[in-house]
Amino acid sequence: MGILEDYLAAREKLKIDVEEVLLTHVAPAVMDEMQEQVQEKVYDAYIPRVYVRRMEDGGLKDRRNYEASVEVGSMTLTVENLTKDAGYWRPPGMGDRFLTPVVESGVGYDYKSPGPRPFNEATEQEVVQSGTVDRELKIGLTERGHNIKEG
């Protein structure tokens, strides 16, 4: 192979490795932070009188309700909290719905709303500002044989 072919092969390997590391290293770290933000912004905001919170047992802190995906080509990581209400916080006759839009907006409760309690943006800001994303990318890419230089 010539220099151009070597370069193109190395670039393709790096792209594939970054997409993989986003799922294997960065996404779990984002999910950890999301759990912390849900606790702080949602659960610590008030004590409910009408229902029992599910928290890590089917609630907004339950990692089984989190889904991560990477948009191939753009290397964009998306982490979503797909918790459904399962009968909680909804008007009579309405089917299951995702809780995140309700909690983040404060709209859609079947009782007096505690107000918006956004946690997605806080999660994103924290993992970027704290260096979590950079750290996890570096760890994952180093494990895959890439030499990552500081700076």
Overview of the molecule:
This protein has a two-stranded antiparallel ribbon. Helix 1 packs across helix 3 (120-129) and helix 1 crosses helix 4 (132-143). It is mainly alpha-helical and 151 residues long. The protein contains four helices and two strands; from the N terminus they run αββααα. The two termini are 31 Å apart.
Put the structure in a nutshell.
The chain is built from four helices and two strands. It has 151 residues and is mainly alpha-helical. α1 (3-42) crosses α3 and α1 (3-42) crosses α4.
Number of strands: 2
State the major sheet.
2 strands, antiparallel
Described by the principal axes of the CA atoms, the overall outline is elongated
Q: Largest beta sheet: what is the strand line-up?
A: 1-2
- DSSP summary: helix tally: 4
Which structural category do the helix and sheet elements fall into? mainly alpha
Rg to the nearest angstrom?
20 Å
Keywords:
151 residues; 2 strands; mainly alpha; two-stranded antiparallel sheet
Topology:
Blueprint: H1 3-42, E1 66-71, E2 76-81, H2 99-105, H3 120-129, H4 132-143
Antiparallel strand pairs: 1-2
Helix pairs in contact: 1-3, 1-4
